């Protein structure tokens, strides 16, 4: 593909997206999305020049190849750069939260083992084949690679954080996967057109002030018979319970509501979805989320009660997660 992902005169060049949207029949959204990207690029983030430089400093790699293996999203190839230098270049994109990745011989040990979540998605046996997929709040795009490998027609990831866009580009500049696009935009900037067969919203719902509006918004983005993969924190309670933390939840400031699974299902039914299946409840473990040299801020370990890991430091139930596979009624 003609992939103008980077050019020295205009380092954030999204012009290749017109071609991407045309190829994947997303052209109705093209004009509005390009306008939103243009506007975002006008309001340049202070760290952008540093991250752009860090991308430009990455070495050339011969025969680059990206593959998702059991324990990492793995970029292989041949480069002259020493391990020490390579590690330093990749450290410039810290903090690395989602992964883990392997970049040539360097293991990027991210805060989250996202492949554990991916395994829970695989356990639901969801069919991505030939689907047009949107991943809302995709972080650095860790799930875009395995979804593309499952032969999705195209995968669009959106996340407003410029750092995550650059972490994605660390791999895409070599992998040049023609079926993936990462838009550094928030959900609010995506036109409400029914363009997608499958929408993933993972780790996002509890950050939305109005979770029902989020579900209604997703419904507008789905084609008839479209499917939702909703992953979120829930209460371990079997009853109809809902937590609205007054202040923080597990150290996170912007958490609005955490429902029990039964409330979550009621929200889905109320907003016009029917539930196909859901995963078992899964307590987030310190194997799945922890501090590493690649993400040295506080992590789950510091946000659980030291004497009782069933509780957060604030005294709320510790995080459990569920994945619900639903479809439009
Ligand atoms: N308005 C917004 N629109 C879209 N994304 C947003 C917005 N605001 C924040 N985000 C993004 O939503 C993501 C939430 S993390 C889940 C990552 C991945 N999905 C995961 O399942 O590991 C939470 C977690 O770690 O669980 C972050 O990357 C935000 O930048």
UniProtKB/TrEMBL annotation:
Give TM regions.
none
Identify the InterPro entries for this entry.
CmoB, Mo5U34_MeTrfas-like, SAM-dependent_MTases_sf
What EC number(s) has UniProt assigned to this enzyme?
2.5.1.-
A molecular function GO annotation: transferase activity, transferring alkyl or aryl (other than methyl) groups
> Which reaction does this enzyme catalyse, per its entry?
carboxy-S-adenosyl-L-methionine + 5-hydroxyuridine(34) in tRNA = 5-carboxymethoxyuridine(34) in tRNA + S-adenosyl-L-homocysteine + H(+)
Top-rank taxon:
Bacteria
Tell me the Gene Ontology biological-process terms attached to this UniProt entry. tRNA wobble uridine modification
Q: Which keywords does this chain's UniProt record carry?
A: Transferase, tRNA processing
Query: Which EC class is the enzyme in?
Result: transferase
- Binding of carboxy-S-adenosyl-L-methionine, residues: 98, 112, 117, 137, 187-188, 202, 206, 321
Short name of any one Pfam family annotated for the protein: Methyltransf_9
Q: Which NCBIfam families match?
A: PRK15068.1, tRNA 5-methoxyuridine(34)/uridine 5-oxyacetic acid(34) synthase CmoB
**What family name appears in the similarity comment?**
Belongs to the class I-like SAM-binding methyltransferase superfamily. CmoB family.
Q: How does it assemble?
A: Homotetramer.
What is this protein for, i.e. what is its function?
A: Catalyzes carboxymethyl transfer from carboxy-S-adenosyl-L-methionine (Cx-SAM) to 5-hydroxyuridine (ho5U) to form 5-carboxymethoxyuridine (cmo5U) at position 34 in tRNAs.
Instruction: Give the PANTHER family listed for this entry.
Output: METHYLTRANSFERASE, TRNA U34 CARBOXYMETHYLTRANSFERASE
- Name of protein: tRNA U34 carboxymethyltransferase
């Amino acid at each position: 593909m003609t992939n103008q992902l980077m050019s020295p005169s205009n380092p954030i060049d999204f012009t290749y997206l017109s071609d991407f949207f045309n190829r994947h029949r997303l052209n109705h959204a093209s004009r509005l999305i390009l306008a939103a990207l243009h506007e975002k690029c006008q309001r340049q983030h202070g760290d952008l020049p540093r991250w752009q430089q860090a991308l430009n400093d990455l070495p050339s790699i011969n025969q680059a190849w990206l593959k998702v293996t059991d324990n990492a999203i793995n970029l292989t190839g041949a480069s002259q750069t020493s391990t020490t230098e390579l590690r330093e270049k990749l450290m410039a994109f810290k903090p690395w939260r989602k992964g883990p990745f392997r970049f040539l011989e360097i293991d990027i040990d991210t805060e989250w083992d996202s492949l554990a979540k991916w395994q829970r998605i695989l356990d639901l046996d969801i069919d991505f084949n030939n689907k047009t997929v949107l991943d809302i709040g995709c972080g650095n795009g860790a799930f875009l690679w395995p979804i593309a490998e499952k032969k999705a027609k195209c995968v669009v990831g959106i996340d407003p954080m410029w750092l995550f866009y650059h972490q994605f580009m660390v791999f895409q500049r070599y992998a040049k996967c023609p079926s993936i696009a990462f838009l550094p935009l928030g959900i609010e900037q995506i036109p409400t057109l029914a363009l997608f067969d499958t929408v993933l919203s993972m780790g996002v719902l509890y950050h939305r002030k109005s979770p029902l509006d989020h579900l209604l918004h997703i419904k507008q983005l789905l084609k008839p018979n479209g499917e939702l993969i909703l992953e979120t924190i829930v209460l371990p309670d079997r009853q109809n319970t809902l937590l609205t933390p007054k202040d923080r939840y597990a150290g996170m400031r912007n958490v609005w509501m955490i429902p029990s699974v039964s409330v979550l299902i009621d929200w889905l039914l109320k907003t016009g979805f029917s539930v196909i299946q859901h995963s078992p409840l899964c307590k987030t473990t310190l194997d799945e989320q922890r501090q590493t040299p690649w993400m040295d801020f506080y992590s789950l370990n510091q946000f659980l009660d030291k004497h009782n890991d069933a509780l957060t430091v604030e005294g709320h139930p510790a995080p459990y997660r569920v994945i619900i596979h639903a479809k439009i009624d």
